[in-house]
Amino acid sequence: MHDLLIRNGRIIDGTGSPWFYGDIAIDEGRIVKIGNLTEESGKTEIDAHHQIVSPGFIDMHVHTDLFILDDPLVEAKVRQGITTELLGQDGIAAAPLPDKFKEDWRNNLSGLDGNPEITWDWNTIDDYLTKIENNHPSYNLAVLAPHGNIRMEVMGLDDRPATDDEIVQMQNVLRRCLDEGAVGMSTGLIYPPCCFAEMKELEALCTVLGEYGVPLVIHQRSEGDEVLESMDELIEMMKRCKAHLHFSHLKNCGQFNWYKTPELLKKIDKARSDGLEVTFDQYPYPAGSTMLSACLPPWAHDGGTETMLKRLEDPELCKRMIHEMASGLKGWDSISKWAGWNGIIVTSVESEENKKYVGKSIEEIGKMTSRQDYGQIAIDLIYQEKNAVGMIDFTINEEDIKKIIQHPAGTLGTDGLLGGKPHPRAYGSFPRVLGRYVRDQNVLPLEQMIRRFTSQPARIIGLQDRGILREGLVADIVIFDPDTIIDQATFENPRQYNKGIDKVIVKGEIIINGDQAYRKPVGTVFRRKYSHAILSQKEGI
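RE: above sequence
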């Protein structure tokens, strides 16, 4: 008798192959048989009649880094069918983190990753992953080494080029992070301190990624005004480094830039035909979400959060910021210019005084306060909240979303910020794609989309026993109704779970069963292992 037996499912195995009817037997957390198992029985049996049985979904871009230390089962994510998340995004994340920067860094992350009541008692990637393990997560997590944290450990938060010696030190810190189990490196070239780095620094770090055979996961410096130029410089750099390039939340922002999307996709095709591995993730909504202080020009962040907040006390510096937010700068995307202040919505604050502004645009806040100095309103909010302000920004074309979904190099990432009144992508991304784009609009066949949710991201981050339904592999499984699956989260009411996902199974244990959710200590904290041959080569042994 098996531990778990799933009967009568329409199995989509994650490879892109057509679905087939079959049963799946699971023992000790692994798939032991797939086929016609009518003569077999299970201690627990599931009748999946008419439903799709697929591998668990892998979320390639998340901001659960701190919340997972507070809640081992983040229902907003798992109820979407997500069984694995990739932490450490945008170059600014939880670890590594030297003690002397903890308070400043906590303020810096608060608008992006929230500020749950947890103890910040880690320094290294190893410390951080161990802390997650000790919290007994109910689903799986992997982590990227964030470029900004690496830079901070070596040279602080100053806006200046790294010296040659500092670059070597950063390479060594990156090697340490990878040896401790990180599955690649992230950077976010709009976020401090990553945005202070010269390309020379980034290229040196990417040569290390090439040695280890892991990806650079990058929020590129432009996602609109100079998106094509940004892609060109990255593709050429990564060819020299011989490393995998993965674009975070690939998109093309600002209606005056939307015509560039076909060319953007052609650049990916050309790079791949030239032998460079290029992949990306995407979220399926016309708006992005990040911290409100991302609207400020890069120089405003020099020295860290406390120094930035001091600058906001200077009326002349604020005037300069407001002008540059309206006009933009060469090499820097102005989100407020793209979206307009009516297209930037406050999603989270920490003070009671300002909670009345959550869910309101900056322009609406102006009407509430009889003000029209919208740039200053944004600055005042950032200052009053000590940078702990989240936002949504409407900048993306619906037709572009579909064009990008169709590209075979893609994966999905929720990019979900979980505080306050969040972007609905935190609750609805995967069901939205399956219901809206696969079933209703026929943008891509179901089997191909499941491949992009499962085996494709597993391959990118090196998970060898997940992402495919196959005998001998770990039983991370989602069971859903293809006729009813859809997101219910909206911009007006985002904290709503989807319809259609019936069961989510991690390592053979049911953690979502209809309306019921169960905290079970079955999640794996992945630590990628690297071959001795690679390590010997880099160490010169």
